[in-house]
């Protein structure tokens, strides 16, 4: 049988020593990084856009009631009754 020289860092065959292990770990880390990056990017595009609160302020029920009374849509009695209801509501 002929004499064969094996490098000590390569173990019994190519890729089975400490350098081979480091290479495999690097490839696995690269694959995990790629999957995480792609899922994060995909997840941000799948979410609906959030409306910004920079729009006009919300109209309160009291303001709507005042406007309806000012336009003449309701009379003074109806206005007084509804205003009392709004003030008693929690």
Strand content: under 5%
Q: Class by helix and strand content?
A: mainly alpha
Give the N-terminus to C-terminus distance in angstroms. Answer: 97 Å
For the biggest sheet, the summary is: none
Using DSSP, what is the number of strands? 0
Key attributes of the depicted protein:
3 helices, 90 residues, mainly alpha, single chain
Question: What does it look like?
Answer:
The protein has a domain at 59-90. It starts with 17 loop residues before the first helix and ends with a helix. The chain is rod-shaped and about 110 Å long. It has 3 helices and no strands. The chain has helices spanning 18-46, 61-71, 76-88. With 90 residues, the protein is mostly helical.
What topology does this entry show?
Layout: H1 18-46, H2 61-71, H3 76-88
Helix pairs in contact: 2-3
Q: Would you kindly provide a brief summary of this structure?
A:
The protein has 90 residues and is an all-alpha fold. It is built from 3 helices and no strands.
């Amino acid at each position: 049988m002929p004499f064969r020289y094996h490098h000590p860092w390569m173990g019994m065959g190519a890729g089975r020593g400490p350098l081979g292990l480091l290479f495999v770990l690097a490839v696995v880390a690269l694959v995990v990084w790629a999957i995480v990056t792609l899922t994060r990017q995909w997840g941000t595009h799948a979410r609906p856009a959030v409306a910004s609160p920079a729009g006009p302020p919300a109209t309160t029920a009291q303001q709507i009631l005042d406007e309806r009374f000012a336009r003449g849509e309701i009379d003074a009695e109806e206005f007084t009754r509804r205003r009392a209801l709004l003030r008693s509501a929690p």
